[in-house]
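Hi C.,

You asked whether I'd gotten around to modeling the 96-residue construct. I have! Everything is below, sequence then structure, no commentary in between.
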Amino acid sequence: MNHERNKPRKRVSVWNWMGTLILLSIPGVNIVVLFLFAFLAKSQSKRNFAIAALILLLIAVILTFAAFLVFPAELRSLADWLRAQANPAVIAPLPS
């Protein structure tokens, strides 16, 4: 008999989710918090959310590295154009 199915679920309040989202908006802290939630969260919904967010983060990192491998010249010219936009004293042409 599976007792996990009959066990009451721990609900996560709106205030708890708001605190979670605030923690996840802090750069650097967010990754640590996601790993903590993925392994130590008591509620299944928060654990699943953290695992899904970590999987999406991994996919984003892999796609970013792939873009740098496939389009290095285009990304370099885009970076130069963005630097020129940050310094309005230098007039730079649009990237082609």
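If it helps when you're writing up: The first helix runs from residue 3 to 6.

Thanks,
B.
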